[in-house]
């Protein structure tokens, strides 16, 4: 039997490097074309300046109402009742119409007590109440 040494079958190889170069070139082309075709649209808006509308008047100090672990309410380190809270908050808002109230309650206090105090403040007209958390 005679073997032909030129008859060896060779598996064709696919060279990926030129194909990747072509794909990257096409991708770069599409990116550049898409960037030039999209026009940036802007909206003419008149932005406010920092000079106008500045309130030179400092904000008044907030009225701090504290609630202890025992459920007592304090204003300026003095224990007060709900009626006294209403009086002092009303007096504070007469002196400072733009004032705010900060309610500092102990974290172990039942939330029902805090809600009751918030209700009292709302009835007096304290619509600017913040809750302080430590």
Beta-strand content: 5-15%
State mean pLDDT (0 to 100 scale): 81
Q: Into which percent range does the helicity of residues fall?
A: 25-40%
Number of strands: 5
C-alpha geometry = elongated
Low-confidence stretches: none
Termini separation comes to 98 Å
Overall radius of gyration: 38 Å
How do the strands line up in the largest sheet?
A: 3-2-1-4-5
Tell me about the largest β-sheet: 5 strands, mixed
Classification by helices and strands? alpha/beta
Helix count? 3
What is the H/E order? Answer: HEEEHEHE
Structure, briefly:
37% of the residues lie in helices and 15% in strands. It is built from three helices and five strands.
Describe the structure.
With 134 residues, the protein is an alpha/beta fold. It is built from three helices and five strands; from the N terminus they run H-E-E-E-H-E-H-E. It has helices spanning 16-37, 82-95, 111-124, and strands at residues 63-67, 73-75, 78-80, 101-105, 129-132. It has a five-stranded mixed sheet with strand order 3-2-1-4-5, covered by helices on one side. Helix 2 (82-95) packs across helix 3. The longest helix is centred in the N-terminal third of the chain and has 22 residues, at 16-37. The chain is elongated. The relative contact order is 0.12. The model has no long low-confidence stretch (mean pLDDT 81).
């Amino acid at each position: 039997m005679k073997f032909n040494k030129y008859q060896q079958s060779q598996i064709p190889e696919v060279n990926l490097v030129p194909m990747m170069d072509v794909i990257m070139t096409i991708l770069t082309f599409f990116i550049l074309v898409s960037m030039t075709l999209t026009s940036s649209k802007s909206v003419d808006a008149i932005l406010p300046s920092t000079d106008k509308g500045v309130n030179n008047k400092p904000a008044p100090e907030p009225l701090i109402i504290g609630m202890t672990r025992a459920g007592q309410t304090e204003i300026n380190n003095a224990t007060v009742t709900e009626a006294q809270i209403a009086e002092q908050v009303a007096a504070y808002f007469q002196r400072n119409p733009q004032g705010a109230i900060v309610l500092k309650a102990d974290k172990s206090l039942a939330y029902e007590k805090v809600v009751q105090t918030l209700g009292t403040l709302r009835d007096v007209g304290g619509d600017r109440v913040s809750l302080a958390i430590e």
